[in-house]
Amino acid sequence: MKSSELEPEPSTLLVKNLPTDIELVLQNPYDYQNVPTQDALQDWANVAVYVIQSTTVIAAHIAFTLRIVDQTEGQQLNHEFRGKPNATNVLSFPCFTDESTADDLVFDLDPSLAVSDEDRQDVNNDGAQHYLGDLVICQPVMQQEAAQQGKSLTEHWAHLLIHGLLHLLGYDHQTDEEAAQMEQQEITILQQLGFANPYLIKPER
What we know:
Layout: E1 21-27, H1 38-52, E2 56-58, E3 61-69, H2 71-82, E4 90-94, H3 99-102, E5 106-108, H4 117-123, E6 129-138, H5 139-148, H6 153-168, H7 176-192
Parallel strand pairs: 1-3, 3-6
Antiparallel strand pairs: 2-5, 4-6
């Protein structure tokens, strides 16, 4: 039975009539029980898109896969794709391979400007569903980190999902400027969901 801690109430933020419809495909091949419900994960993704769309135009129909893995698969994937010897918390595999492809899905706008219906129509004229890519969350690593950082599993799950989804939408943290922008988006989205700033929670000593 799933822990009640991991079944939060649906977000109070109204996200009806979203310009973008996002589909989350969940894979849990190791049958982990202490994970958020499909509804909770979908709600978090919906709110993330709702927040991002205040300054960004995203294709009208998008989808991504979330796969929950064990330590062994997490280690194999991190070694194969990043050359790292250990499993990590979240891996993002964007479907696009270059900026031109990404620009078909996501258009960054001046933050001082409102997104117009014309902006959205420019992106959404084909009516097709665009596949963003895959997220992989390693459940054992995620649980260990939550304990070390003094967070609930729900808090850390929400943060990792939002972090990974932002990567699929073209965000990165290769530079200080990119990292600051991405972290601020994460903080804003998580606050809308009722979660604390994840970067203010310090590890237990």
